[in-house]
Amino acid sequence: VLLVDDVYTTGGSMERYRDKHFPNNACCGAVLFARNKITQPWIGSLFQLNHYFPTPFAGLSKEERTILDV
Known about the structure:
Layout: E1 2-8, H1 12-21, E2 28-34, E3 43-48, H2 62-68
Parallel strand pairs: 1-2, 2-3
C-alpha cells in the first residue's frame, strides 16, 4: 500500500491514517514536499525544503500544536 500526501510537516497525519487503516504497518509513504527532516523510515519525499522555508507552526507551543493537530 502506498500512502501519498502533498506536504510533510511532522508525519503525524500519515501515521494516524496508517495506524487506523493498515494496523499491520505494511505500507510505504511518499510526499511531494518535506518541511522538516523525515523521521519515519517508511516515508520518502520528492523535495526537501530548507531553512529558508520555515514551518508555519514553528512558533507555536506543544500545547497549541496539539490543539491544532499539527
